[in-house]
Amino acid sequence: MSPKLPISLITCRIRNVVGGIIDIIFPSRCIICGVFLNDSPSPPFCTTCLSGIHHISSPQCTRCGIPFPDSHGENHLCGECISTEQPFSIARALGKYEGTLLTAIHRFKYGRKISAGTALGRMMAQRTCRSHDFEEFSLIIPVPLHIKRLRERGFNQSVILAREIARAYNIPLNLSSLERKVDTKQQTKLKKTERGQNVRGAFTVTKPGPIEGKKILLIDDVFTTGSTVRECARMLIRNGAKEVAALTVARAIHHNQ
Ligand SMILES: [Zn+2]
Ligand SMILES: [Zn+2]
Q1: What pTM does this model have?
Q2: 199 vs 59: CA distance, rounded Å
Q3: How far apart are the C-alpha atoms of 202 and 228, rounded to whole Å?
Q4: Cβ atoms 246, 233 nearer than 8 A
Q5: Ligand 1 center to 28 CA (angstroms)
Q6: How many angstroms separate the alpha carbon of residue 30 from the centre of ligand 1?
Q7: Taking ligand 2, which is a single-atom ion, which protein residues have CB atoms under 5 Å away?
Q8: Measured in angstroms, how far is the CA atom of residue 97 from the centroid of ligand 1?
Q9: Which ligand has the shortest distance to the CA of 46?
């Protein structure tokens, strides 16, 4: 007679066996190229696609994180961050908006591949940039979507990313203080100057209480010109946040600064 096992242990073993069978019948595939993931260190990406993530290295702007074309020298402020005071203290990204990250973000946002989003969120939490000391933040806020866009897409991509970081560091996630009141035009269709005007006044802080005096980590999928992150940070600071730092999956690189 077999010894009695606690019910939780039995269900855990059943789950392992079922999971193993599912893996044999439907082995996981890389979400970018579709090859079978046998022993990838970072599923759902295969080793080849993982190497297609282009991380941003120094020298880069100490504030907005843009890399400088000349690969020599030290980090310093870029022209834009010297001439314009940024409402965020620092902005960093997991990597450049190209290659694997570009494809992964598209699969996630437009192909509704949520597993791509959770994987990207976990990667942001793990490695990103040594300049973000996650433990220092007392609140995480994802860039909100307008209710109309949220209904169309069915999820807010920034919330899925932010949840993974909040979970990894046990930092509270705030989804109610910052709201997107204006359904702005899609930023991707606009020029840089238009992007700033487009999001101006689009966000409001409806519940300032939870953000007062807080050091906030703002999460978004892509930093293109920084208009969205800048506007959110501006509103959070105006309503009492102590500091706002931004972290995105990807950073578009445009060397016109
Ligand atoms: Zn692949
Ligand atoms: Zn800069």
Answers
A1: 0.86
A2: 30
A3: 9
A4: yes
A5: 11
A6: 5
A7: 61, 63-64, 78, 81
A8: 17
A9: 1
